[in-house]
Design a protein that fits this description.
The protein is mainly β. About 15% of the residues lie in helices and about 45% in strands. The protein has a 14-stranded antiparallel sheet, sandwiched between helices. The protein has a five-stranded antiparallel sheet with strand order 26-33-32-29-30, with no helix packed on it. A hairpin with a 2-residue loop joins strand 32 and strand 33. It is flat. It starts with a helix and ends with a strand.
């Protein structure tokens, strides 16, 4: 009987809930909706529209758990649940950042499922917003005409430009350092603080025969002129304004202008020789300027990087520059291992003598990979490896910005990449300045390193028996302090003879230093007795 009683109570409760919903649904409600939004003119991808939706209960009954839908092109973006007392208004704030161009139809609908009886049913507001293509893609058009002695331009995606600015804080890399020639401190801070807000960036730089310099950078994304102004204002500089452009005087001859131009945040730096500032730049521009490319474009097409066949590579952009002595081209790309810059530089500089590599030499001595040591205040967990190949008048580089655990792999992968290029000139050889060495602290044994360690961290060593009786090598270890591990050998060396031994060294640092010193420990039998001896072995990263 108790079971049937519980069932009866459940049925009554369910019936009450259903009946209550039917009664609520039959009640009449009255509400109105107003939708306000920020200016819709001159909208471009990655701009943001801010909506304020006001839902007003104009009826005589409170409205509980009202569903309000916000739609884009009839597809729901957000659903909100509001309760509104009689005569009150519920505010809803929505922001939308555009990812594409075209017409965007926004609509807000109260009670989209028609659960409530709204009388009258004035529960919908809508607006159509047109997002246009950004029009400026040639930053040279913002630079003044003149006799140019050197120039470069770049087209980069995402946070590529902030990455370059960040690298300049900790590393001395010539190509990247030259990208902020007018004022590294101010421009670097703008770019680094804008990390995560940039989708595309285009830039150009020119140095003139008069000594003047001009640089234009266009940034597209959620970054905006007021944000850039706030960063520059932290330097307490003299500020000027003219026709919507803000200018800051970096010194008597150098100025920086910030404005909004056809979908981009425009940054213009000008180092004058006649006290002019960036606001006073004339209309005649370098819009038709073109740089010589030679064979670089063909070579750069072959700079396709992949750590392995399963690695997906994303192309991030390029840099191209020229002066009266050389021209260069740079590609940027990334995959799951890190960010990579490949560059080829054709220069008039001629070389003589041996090319000394203070790092890893690979590809039959064609490529030198060096770990670039950051400045003292760097605390991050990534490292930079510069792999370089010389070919007559060409310099080829791959800069690998990877997690410190991938430094050695980056060197091998960069060497493989460089080997794919089909240059007409034969690569010049690299030579290491270091010698492998081995020293055992006993009169019974001597050693000689015949080859450096390989990719599996082993080295080939000759162990010499200096005595007139046989010596049996039981085990040895090659290690850095704290990481000792015995390696079984079980090899007998005849009197006054030698044996080839493959030695595995524990925790070989990954090209942090070009030469590494390890402790040796050897256990051997001589006659009926067992002995232990120690030694030192130096191995080069070649």
């Amino acid at each position: 009987m108790l079971v049937y009683g519980i069932i009866a109570i459940a049925i009554i409760a369910a019936s009450y809930i259903i009946l209550s919903n039917v009664i609520n649904a039959n009640q009449s409600y009255s509400l109105s909706i107003k939708m306000y939004y920020t200016n819709t003119s001159d909208l471009y991808p990655f701009n943001t529209t801010r909506f304020l939706i006001l839902v007003n209960n104009t009826g005589k009954k409170p409205i509980n758990d009202l569903l309000v839908g916000f739609y884009l092109n009839d597809r729901p973006l957000h659903m909100y649940n509001v309760s509104i007392p009689t005569g009150e208004t519920a505010p809803i704030k929505v922001n939308y950042t555009y990812k594409t161009t075209g017409i965007h139809n926004f609509k807000v609908v109260a009670d989209p499922a028609n659960v409530l009886a709204l009388n009258p049913r004035t529960s919908t507001q809508s607006v159509s917003i047109n997002v246009r293509n950004a029009s400026i893609t040639n930053p040279f058009s913002q630079l003044p005409n003149g006799t140019v002695v050197s120039s470069y331009n770049f087209s980069l995606t995402g946070d590529s430009l902030p990455v370059i600015a960040e690298l300049n804080n900790y590393y001395k890399i010539g190509i990247f350092d030259s990208m902020m020639p007018i004022n590294k401190n101010v421009l670097g801070k703008i770019l680094i603080d804008s990390t995560g807000t940039i989708q595309y960036s285009y830039g150009a730089y020119a140095k003139y025969n008069s000594g003047a310099q001009a640089q234009a950078i266009f940034l597209q994304g959620t970054v905006n002129p007021s944000f850039v102004d706030s960063i520059i204002e932290s330097f307490n500089l003299k500020k000027l304004s003219f026709n919507g452009t803000t200018a800051f005087m970096l010194n008597n001859l150098t100025s920086i202008c910030v404005s909004s131009k056809s979908g981009f945040t425009s940054i213009l730096l000008y180092n004058s020789t006649n006290n002019n500032n960036c606001i006073s730049l004339k209309e005649n521009s370098m819009s038709n300027y073109s740089q010589p490319q030679g064979n670089l474009s063909r070579y750069m097409q072959e700079f396709v990087f992949a750590n392995n066949p399963n690695s997906t590579t994303t192309y991030l952009g390029n840099i191209f520059g020229a002066n009266n002595k050389s021209i260069y081209s740079v590609n940027e790309f990334q995959n799951k291992y890190g960010v990579f810059f490949s560059s080829i530089n054709k220069t008039e500089i001629t070389r003589s003598g041996k090319n000394i590599c203070y790092g890893v030499v690979s590809n039959n001595s064609n490529v030198c990979s060096v770990y670039l040591k950051p400045s003292y205040n760097y605390t991050g967990n990534y490292g930079v490896v510069d792999s370089e190949e010389l070919a007559g008048n060409y310099i080829l580089n791959v800069y690998s910005i990877v997690n410190t655990s991938e430094l050695q792999n980056a060197a091998y992968n960069s060497a493989n990449l460089l080997s794919r290029l089909n240059l007409s000139e034969r690569p010049l050889l690299w030579y290491g300045p270091y010698q492998n060495s081995c020293n055992i602290h006993t009169t019974a044994l001597a050693c000689n390193v015949t080859t450096s360690y390989t990719s599996n961290n082993t080295a080939s060593v000759k162990l010499f028996n200096l005595l007139n009786q046989s010596i049996r090598i039981n085990y040895l270890s090659c290690f850095v302090p704290g990481l000792r591990k015995n390696q079984t050998i079980n090899k007998t060396i005849a009197p006054n003879s030698y044996a080839n031994v493959s030695i595995s060294c524990q925790n070989i640092p990954e090209i942090i230093l070009p030469i590494n010193s390890y402790n040796l420990s050897i256990n051997y039998n001589l006659g009926n007795y067992s002995y232990n001896t120690t030694g030192i072995m130096n191995l080069t990263n070649t």
